[in-house]
Design goal:
0% strand, 70 residues, mainly alpha
């Protein structure tokens, strides 16, 4: 991905730092990524299709149920 704007690059670095800190935890962890329209994230134009949100919530719900019943 090519990033041309400085503030977006800085936001990407901050996001990467958050992701890295989550995986530095001394416990199992996971992340759910939801696609953004046109790949735009961490900016004012960020948006996600309604159907992608529904699928993501269903995936999260199914995962939580699986882990709770494990």
């Amino acid at each position: 991905m090519h990033i041309e704007q400085g503030p977006i690059l800085e936001d990407k670095k901050k996001s990467l730092a958050v992701v890295n800190s989550i995986f530095d935890l001394k416990m199992p962890a996971g992340m759910l990524f939801v696609p953004s329209i046109n790949g735009r994230s961490h900016c004012f134009e960020e948006d996600t299709h309604h159907q992608d949100l529904i699928v993501s919530v269903e995936a999260l719900t199914e995962t939580c149920c699986h882990l709770l019943l494990k």
